[in-house]
Amino acid sequence: MLINLMMGLPTMVFCLLMQSLLVMVVVRYYGRHRHQIENDSFTSSLIVINVVMLLLVLGNLVQVAIWALLFLSLGEFEAFAEAFYHSAVNFATLGYGDFVMSERHKLLGPLQAINGVLMIGVSTAALMSAFQDAMKKTLEARKGGSV
């Protein structure tokens, strides 16, 4: 159990740091493209929001891959595709159970699920913040700045 914590917790911390950096990238991107949102076009706002969403999803998929590489390095899976699938199931807390890790490393699954819940929550919060701001700015522009 201790060995799983010694491997899983640093992986979680690395993913947390990576997600924090990614949120900063998203915030900077959003700030640099704010002029596209501050007009009355829903299309330009939609493009910015979709790029934000895509970046956040890609960040979550990179984290799934990081966990998959850990599982692969531990010999839990023979192919990256299987490890990635199992990792995605854990990260999204689906828990299908069609691929199961050995008794020795099974604690890593719940650790990754905790990581996934946190990271998907952070992604959702960042996306909703950008979406709400974009909608507010677009509606203000449509009403001539009087909201």
UniProtKB/TrEMBL annotation:
Residues 64-132 form the Potassium channel domain. Keywords: Membrane, Transmembrane, Transmembrane helix. It comes from Marinobacterium nitratireducens. This is Potassium channel domain-containing protein. InterPro entries: K_chnl_dom. The keyword Transmembrane helix applies. The chain crosses the membrane at residues 6-27, 47-71, 113-131. Pfam families: Ion_trans_2.
